Amino acid sequence: MNRRQLLRATTALGATGALAGTAATSAAAAPSAPAAAPNRPLRVHIPLFDGVEELDFAAPYEIFSAAGFFTTRPVEVRYVSATGARSVTAAYGTVVRGLRPWAPDEADLLVVPGGGYARRDSPGVWAEIDRGTLPRALAAAARPGLTVAALCTGVMLLSAAGLTRGRPCTTHHKAKADLEGQGGRVKNARVVDDGDLVTAAGVTSGLELALWLVHRELGSDTATGLETMLEYEARGTVWTSSPA
């Protein structure tokens, strides 16, 4: 066990004890975790592409991966590509290797990051929209049992796929007018949960998106345990279409 794993495991044990008998705090409004087979993994796929924003994909990956320390349900997280197993170069030069092939039928959650929306002639969201491969793959992925989520300008990839039209959603503040112009019902919230479509605002909101989904899928103790480990409290409003 390396130092990072040891720190996580130690913090997980401490947080579990500290949380016994206490109520959830910042994510307390989340619905109860759905009844899922306890031994069936929660499968999270994060699509990457050239020009993707580092924090957009790293924050959710960290949270979903660490969630396994706070729940008995297995959690599997993988980076995937709609253009086959490959490497990508992110917005600030980080190279991510070993991406897995696109397989949304093997996922429970698809979490789409953004990046590069302000640079129309550079790698990023615009290039992916122009190419069309990822939007088409996202449109075809929708099925019962799959939640499609996105943060920041990754939501514009969902918009290009036709998944946000007529539905409550949000995105980075500089892209909200575009999202609304393409038929999205834009909400002024940090996270917008419309059941099988969950979206979040700008770059750092990937933390809130992932914590919210962890709470929704794995329960409040898992989410608050993660907050303790990360020394981070989820902030901002979560708009949800579910009854209170």
TrEMBL record:
As given in the record, the signal peptide range reads: 1-20
The reply to whether Signal figures as a keyword in the UniProt entry is yes
**Keyword annotations of the record:** Signal
Where the record annotates domain DJ-1/PfpI, the positions are: 43-214
Q: Cross-referenced SUPFAM superfamilies, in alphabetical order?
A: Class I glutamine amidotransferase-like
Give yes or no: UniProt keyword Signal: yes
Q: Which domain of life is it from?
A: Bacteria
The UniProt entry, under Pfam families, shows: DJ-1_PfpI
Write down the PANTHER family for this protein, in alphabetical order: ARAC-FAMILY TRANSCRIPTIONAL REGULATOR, HTH-TYPE TRANSCRIPTIONAL REGULATOR RV1931C
This chain's protein is named AraC family transcriptional regulator
Species annotation: Streptomyces showdoensis
